[in-house]
UniProtKB/TrEMBL annotation:
InterPro entries named among the record's database cross-references: Deoxy-glucuronate_isom_IolB (IPR024203), KduI/IolB_isomerase (IPR021120), RmlC-like_jellyroll (IPR014710), RmlC_Cupin_sf (IPR011051)
Keyword Membrane: no
Stored Pfam families: KduI
One of the record's GO molecular function terms: glucuronate isomerase activity
Protein name: 5-deoxy-glucuronate isomerase
Organism: Kitasatospora camelliae
E.C. number(s) listed in UniProt: 5.3.1.30
Protein's GO biological process: inositol catabolic process
Keyword list, A-Z: Isomerase
SUPFAM superfamilies: RmlC-like cupins
Amino acid sequence: MTTTHHLRAGSAGDGTYTVNVSPASAGWGYSSLRVLELPPAGRHSFATGDSEWIVLPLAGSCTVTAGGDVFRLRGRASVFDGVTDFAYAPRDAEVSIASPDGGRFALTGARCERRLPARYGPASSVPVELRGTGTCSRQVNNFGAAGVFACDRLIAVEVITPGGNWSSFPPHKHDEHRPGQESQLEEVYYYEFAAHAGTPGLGYQRVSPSGRGGTDVLAEVRDGDVVLIPDGWHGPSMAVPGHDMYYLNVMAGPDRAWLIHDHPDHAWIRGTWPEQPVDPRLPRYTAPAK
């Protein structure tokens, strides 16, 4: 069932994009996500408007033209096959994406004030982090993290969770502006799953209210699904056994800082991590050498 905050695959598209989440459609101020599928020799153009964008190949390669800058993205076969390079396009620009062989591309965006230069992000520069241990082990590709790649408002990362593990755990929130302790960030989760013997994968996402009338989601998520998190404790994100889970996180808010507050009932779990090894299935892959 599609709800206000859980958008089933196919329910959030508009004919051009298979996913098109904007501040207007989500009812918030900053964060956007579009997923574009291009056929062989396909091309798509768009105006960035009042937002900055990162073009991220999910499957396939492409050439991105932003104003007078041209970036050739090698991409990857799938989100489970490697770190990808990417391109940053500033606000108030015209962008074109062309793919000789076709593919699927994420456009992660955020409303912003500053107009930064268009840039290429090499795969070799993406920090690959192993977060958590034991059954909380997951891999984070910090391509657009604060402090890693310069943006005005946009924060974007990829997370791979091995089948049977929990990520986004302990549950945490970032829905209040508390300087030095917590930042206020809207967040989009976009999911893909590794199939097994032709059987599609699935997982589960929990978001619980952090205040009266807050976001409350318990969703079975599958390929192409989206969960919108304007507020609330989010986590766990659970990958069913046998199917690795990928999700793309897009975040933005008044300040570009990822400061989170763990749920007080579950924060203790972090203290157990030093006692356990990281899941030996990780890293799924590492960034290529320069």
